[in-house]
Amino acid sequence: MMIPGAPQELKKDEMVQLVSHELRAPLNATEGYIKFLMQCESGPLNPEQMDLLNTALNNINRLEHFVTDMLDLAKMEAGRLSYRFAQADLGTLIRGVLETFRFAAAEKGVRLACDVPAGLTQARMDEGRVRQVLENLVNNALKFTDEGGTVMVSVWEYCGWLKVSVADNGAGISPEFMPELFERFSQEGARRTWNERAKGSGLGLWIVKNVVHAHGGNVWVQSERGVGSIFNFTVPASQA
Ligand SMILES: Nc1ncnc2c1ncn2[C@@H]1O[C@H](COP(=O)(O)OP(=O)(O)OP(=O)(O)O)[C@@H](O)[C@H]1O
Ligand SMILES: [Mg+2]
Fold first, then answer.
1. pLDDT digits (tens, 9 = 90+) for 118-161
2. I want to staple 145 with a disulfide (CB 3.0 to 4.6 A). Which of 107, 149, 152, 226 is the partner?
3. What is the pTM of this model?
4. Is the same domain home to 129 and 215?
5. Is the same domain home to 98 and 68?
Protein backbone atom coordinates (compact mmCIF):
# COMPACT_ATOMS: atom_id res chain seq x y z
CA MET A 1 0.00 0.00 0.00
CA MET A 2 1.30 3.47 -0.89
CA ILE A 3 1.44 5.91 2.03
CA PRO A 4 0.69 9.50 0.96
CA GLY A 5 3.79 11.65 1.18
CA ALA A 6 6.08 8.61 1.45
CA PRO A 7 8.82 8.21 -1.14
CA GLN A 8 7.71 6.44 -4.33
CA GLU A 9 8.02 2.66 -4.48
CA LEU A 10 11.43 1.60 -5.77
CA LYS A 11 11.68 -0.07 -9.16
CA LYS A 12 13.37 -3.48 -9.19
CA ASP A 13 16.59 -2.22 -10.76
CA GLU A 14 16.71 0.71 -8.34
CA MET A 15 16.28 -1.72 -5.45
CA VAL A 16 19.12 -3.92 -6.73
CA GLN A 17 21.25 -0.81 -7.21
CA LEU A 18 20.59 0.29 -3.63
CA VAL A 19 21.30 -3.15 -2.14
CA SER A 20 24.44 -3.59 -4.26
CA HIS A 21 25.67 -0.16 -3.28
CA GLU A 22 25.11 -0.89 0.41
CA LEU A 23 26.84 -4.28 0.11
CA ARG A 24 29.90 -2.93 -1.70
CA ALA A 25 31.30 -0.78 1.12
CA PRO A 26 31.31 -3.48 3.85
CA LEU A 27 32.59 -6.06 1.36
CA ASN A 28 35.48 -3.82 0.31
CA ALA A 29 36.28 -3.03 3.93
CA THR A 30 36.24 -6.72 4.91
CA GLU A 31 38.46 -7.58 1.95
CA GLY A 32 40.90 -4.90 3.10
CA TYR A 33 41.03 -6.25 6.66
CA ILE A 34 41.57 -9.82 5.47
CA LYS A 35 44.39 -8.75 3.14
CA PHE A 36 45.94 -6.73 5.95
CA LEU A 37 45.96 -9.82 8.19
CA MET A 38 47.33 -11.99 5.38
CA GLN A 39 50.25 -9.64 4.87
CA CYS A 40 51.12 -10.41 8.53
CA GLU A 41 51.11 -6.68 9.30
CA SER A 42 49.62 -7.38 12.72
CA GLY A 43 51.78 -10.39 13.50
CA PRO A 44 52.81 -13.70 11.97
CA LEU A 45 50.19 -16.32 11.00
CA ASN A 46 50.46 -20.07 11.01
CA PRO A 47 49.59 -22.02 7.81
CA GLU A 48 46.15 -23.01 9.11
CA GLN A 49 45.22 -19.40 9.90
CA MET A 50 46.48 -18.36 6.46
CA ASP A 51 44.33 -21.06 4.87
CA LEU A 52 41.23 -19.91 6.73
CA LEU A 53 41.80 -16.30 5.71
CA ASN A 54 42.34 -17.38 2.12
CA THR A 55 38.96 -19.14 2.15
CA ALA A 56 37.36 -16.02 3.65
CA LEU A 57 38.94 -13.90 0.89
CA ASN A 58 37.66 -16.26 -1.83
CA ASN A 59 34.16 -15.99 -0.40
CA ILE A 60 34.34 -12.20 -0.32
CA ASN A 61 35.54 -12.17 -3.94
CA ARG A 62 32.68 -14.42 -4.96
CA LEU A 63 30.18 -12.10 -3.31
CA GLU A 64 31.74 -9.06 -5.00
CA HIS A 65 31.52 -10.83 -8.37
CA PHE A 66 27.88 -11.70 -7.67
CA VAL A 67 27.00 -8.12 -6.68
CA THR A 68 28.54 -6.79 -9.92
CA ASP A 69 26.66 -9.37 -12.01
CA MET A 70 23.35 -8.63 -10.25
CA LEU A 71 23.81 -4.95 -10.90
CA ASP A 72 24.48 -5.58 -14.61
CA LEU A 73 21.53 -7.96 -14.79
CA ALA A 74 19.14 -5.41 -13.29
CA LYS A 75 20.36 -2.65 -15.61
CA MET A 76 20.19 -4.92 -18.68
CA GLU A 77 16.68 -6.09 -17.83
CA ALA A 78 15.55 -2.50 -17.41
CA GLY A 79 17.29 -1.52 -20.66
CA ARG A 80 19.32 1.01 -18.73
CA LEU A 81 22.79 -0.25 -19.46
CA SER A 82 24.50 2.28 -21.68
CA TYR A 83 27.20 1.33 -24.16
CA ARG A 84 30.05 3.44 -25.49
CA PHE A 85 30.97 2.11 -28.93
CA ALA A 86 34.33 3.14 -30.32
CA GLN A 87 37.09 1.74 -32.50
CA ALA A 88 39.43 -0.51 -30.51
CA ASP A 89 41.81 -3.39 -31.16
CA LEU A 90 40.25 -6.74 -30.29
CA GLY A 91 43.59 -8.60 -30.51
CA THR A 92 45.18 -6.34 -27.90
CA LEU A 93 42.13 -6.77 -25.68
CA ILE A 94 42.30 -10.58 -25.94
CA ARG A 95 46.03 -10.68 -25.15
CA GLY A 96 45.41 -8.43 -22.11
CA VAL A 97 42.56 -10.61 -20.83
CA LEU A 98 44.59 -13.81 -21.26
CA GLU A 99 47.43 -12.22 -19.31
CA THR A 100 45.12 -11.78 -16.30
CA PHE A 101 44.29 -15.52 -16.39
CA ARG A 102 47.93 -16.71 -16.73
CA PHE A 103 48.37 -17.38 -13.04
CA ALA A 104 45.03 -19.16 -12.53
CA ALA A 105 45.67 -21.34 -15.60
CA ALA A 106 49.21 -22.25 -14.49
CA GLU A 107 47.93 -23.12 -11.02
CA LYS A 108 45.35 -25.44 -12.56
CA GLY A 109 47.79 -26.93 -15.06
CA VAL A 110 45.76 -25.78 -18.07
CA ARG A 111 47.49 -24.36 -21.16
CA LEU A 112 46.24 -20.95 -22.33
CA ALA A 113 46.88 -20.16 -25.98
CA CYS A 114 45.79 -17.59 -28.50
CA ASP A 115 45.75 -17.34 -32.26
CA VAL A 116 45.22 -13.71 -33.18
CA PRO A 117 46.31 -12.46 -36.61
CA ALA A 118 48.56 -9.41 -36.59
CA GLY A 119 46.51 -6.38 -37.66
CA LEU A 120 42.97 -6.82 -39.02
CA THR A 121 41.43 -6.90 -35.56
CA GLN A 122 40.03 -3.38 -35.29
CA ALA A 123 36.50 -3.61 -33.94
CA ARG A 124 33.68 -1.21 -33.22
CA MET A 125 32.82 -2.09 -29.66
CA ASP A 126 32.41 -1.11 -26.05
CA GLU A 127 35.82 -2.30 -24.91
CA GLY A 128 34.93 -2.68 -21.23
CA ARG A 129 31.86 -4.78 -22.02
CA VAL A 130 33.65 -7.00 -24.57
CA ARG A 131 36.36 -7.50 -21.96
CA GLN A 132 33.60 -8.76 -19.65
CA VAL A 133 32.43 -11.18 -22.38
CA LEU A 134 35.95 -12.55 -22.86
CA GLU A 135 36.54 -12.82 -19.11
CA ASN A 136 33.32 -14.79 -18.66
CA LEU A 137 34.09 -17.19 -21.50
CA VAL A 138 37.73 -17.77 -20.54
CA ASN A 139 36.75 -18.12 -16.90
CA ASN A 140 34.16 -20.78 -17.80
CA ALA A 141 36.57 -22.60 -20.11
CA LEU A 142 39.19 -22.77 -17.34
CA LYS A 143 36.62 -23.76 -14.72
CA PHE A 144 35.33 -26.73 -16.73
CA THR A 145 38.71 -27.98 -18.02
CA ASP A 146 40.88 -30.37 -16.04
CA GLU A 147 44.62 -30.38 -15.54
CA GLY A 148 46.49 -31.08 -18.77
CA GLY A 149 43.77 -29.45 -20.93
CA THR A 150 44.01 -26.46 -23.24
CA VAL A 151 42.00 -23.27 -23.63
CA MET A 152 42.48 -21.54 -26.95
CA VAL A 153 41.21 -18.15 -28.09
CA SER A 154 41.15 -17.43 -31.85
CA VAL A 155 39.98 -14.57 -34.06
CA TRP A 156 38.90 -14.48 -37.72
CA GLU A 157 37.73 -11.61 -39.85
CA TYR A 158 35.03 -12.13 -42.44
CA CYS A 159 32.48 -9.95 -44.24
CA GLY A 160 32.82 -6.99 -41.89
CA TRP A 161 32.68 -9.07 -38.72
CA LEU A 162 35.26 -10.34 -36.26
CA LYS A 163 34.54 -13.81 -34.95
CA VAL A 164 36.08 -14.85 -31.63
CA SER A 165 36.21 -18.49 -30.50
CA VAL A 166 37.03 -19.68 -27.01
CA ALA A 167 37.69 -23.41 -27.26
CA ASP A 168 38.39 -25.88 -24.49
CA ASN A 169 38.84 -29.63 -24.28
CA GLY A 170 37.09 -29.86 -20.92
CA ALA A 171 33.83 -31.31 -19.59
CA GLY A 172 31.59 -30.34 -22.52
CA ILE A 173 27.85 -29.69 -22.24
CA SER A 174 25.07 -32.25 -22.62
CA PRO A 175 22.56 -31.66 -25.45
CA GLU A 176 19.62 -31.51 -22.96
CA PHE A 177 21.16 -28.51 -21.22
CA MET A 178 21.91 -26.56 -24.42
CA PRO A 179 18.51 -24.80 -24.72
CA GLU A 180 18.86 -23.16 -21.27
CA LEU A 181 22.58 -22.45 -21.46
CA PHE A 182 22.19 -18.69 -21.97
CA GLU A 183 19.32 -18.28 -19.48
CA ARG A 184 19.73 -16.48 -16.16
CA PHE A 185 20.87 -18.61 -13.20
CA SER A 186 21.16 -21.73 -15.34
CA GLN A 187 23.81 -24.26 -14.37
CA GLU A 188 24.04 -27.82 -15.57
CA GLY A 189 22.84 -30.16 -12.83
CA ALA A 190 20.89 -27.23 -11.26
CA ARG A 191 23.02 -26.89 -8.16
CA ARG A 192 21.02 -24.93 -5.63
CA THR A 193 22.73 -24.31 -2.31
CA TRP A 194 25.26 -21.55 -1.72
CA ASN A 195 28.04 -24.08 -1.16
CA GLU A 196 27.19 -26.07 -4.26
CA ARG A 197 27.04 -22.83 -6.19
CA ALA A 198 30.62 -22.11 -5.19
CA LYS A 199 31.60 -22.28 -8.82
CA GLY A 200 29.39 -19.34 -9.82
CA SER A 201 25.90 -17.98 -9.98
CA GLY A 202 24.85 -18.83 -13.53
CA LEU A 203 24.69 -15.24 -14.75
CA GLY A 204 27.84 -15.10 -16.89
CA LEU A 205 26.46 -16.43 -20.17
CA TRP A 206 23.26 -14.37 -19.89
CA ILE A 207 25.43 -11.26 -19.60
CA VAL A 208 27.59 -12.47 -22.52
CA LYS A 209 24.50 -12.90 -24.72
CA ASN A 210 23.16 -9.44 -23.86
CA VAL A 211 26.43 -7.65 -24.49
CA VAL A 212 27.04 -9.43 -27.82
CA HIS A 213 23.47 -8.71 -29.00
CA ALA A 214 23.89 -5.04 -28.03
CA HIS A 215 26.78 -5.01 -30.53
CA GLY A 216 24.52 -6.47 -33.22
CA GLY A 217 26.54 -9.70 -33.04
CA ASN A 218 25.71 -13.33 -32.36
CA VAL A 219 26.83 -15.91 -29.84
CA TRP A 220 26.64 -19.68 -30.30
CA VAL A 221 28.23 -22.83 -28.99
CA GLN A 222 29.39 -26.21 -30.25
CA SER A 223 29.95 -28.75 -27.53
CA GLU A 224 30.21 -32.44 -26.85
CA ARG A 225 30.14 -34.07 -23.42
CA GLY A 226 33.61 -35.32 -22.47
CA VAL A 227 35.21 -33.74 -25.54
CA GLY A 228 34.98 -29.98 -24.99
CA SER A 229 33.23 -26.78 -25.97
CA ILE A 230 33.70 -23.91 -28.40
CA PHE A 231 31.96 -20.63 -27.57
CA ASN A 232 31.85 -18.26 -30.56
CA PHE A 233 30.73 -14.63 -30.77
CA THR A 234 30.89 -11.84 -33.34
CA VAL A 235 31.39 -8.08 -33.10
CA PRO A 236 31.46 -5.63 -35.99
CA ALA A 237 34.86 -4.97 -37.55
CA SER A 238 35.90 -1.37 -38.00
CA GLN A 239 37.67 0.00 -41.06
CA ALA A 240 40.67 1.79 -39.63
N1 LIG B 1 33.23 -24.05 -21.22
C2 LIG B 1 32.25 -24.72 -20.59
N3 LIG B 1 32.32 -26.08 -20.45
C4 LIG B 1 31.34 -26.79 -19.83
N5 LIG B 1 30.22 -26.23 -19.31
C6 LIG B 1 30.07 -24.89 -19.42
C7 LIG B 1 31.08 -24.07 -20.07
N8 LIG B 1 30.66 -22.79 -20.03
C9 LIG B 1 29.46 -22.80 -19.38
N10 LIG B 1 29.10 -24.06 -19.01
C11 LIG B 1 27.84 -24.47 -18.33
O12 LIG B 1 26.92 -23.39 -18.40
C13 LIG B 1 26.57 -22.96 -17.08
C14 LIG B 1 26.29 -21.48 -17.09
O15 LIG B 1 27.49 -20.74 -17.29
P16 LIG B 1 27.55 -19.26 -16.74
O17 LIG B 1 28.85 -18.67 -17.11
O18 LIG B 1 26.31 -18.54 -17.17
O19 LIG B 1 27.43 -19.45 -15.17
P20 LIG B 1 28.52 -19.92 -14.11
O21 LIG B 1 29.87 -19.97 -14.74
O22 LIG B 1 28.00 -21.17 -13.49
O23 LIG B 1 28.45 -18.74 -13.03
P24 LIG B 1 28.96 -17.21 -13.21
O25 LIG B 1 29.50 -17.07 -14.60
O26 LIG B 1 27.74 -16.40 -12.98
O27 LIG B 1 30.00 -17.03 -12.16
C28 LIG B 1 27.74 -23.39 -16.21
O29 LIG B 1 27.39 -23.51 -14.85
C30 LIG B 1 28.07 -24.76 -16.84
O31 LIG B 1 27.13 -25.74 -16.42
MG1 LIG C 1 30.57 -18.31 -15.82
1. 877 899 999 999 999 999 999 999 999 999 999 999 999 999 99
2. 149
3. 0.84
4. yes
5. no
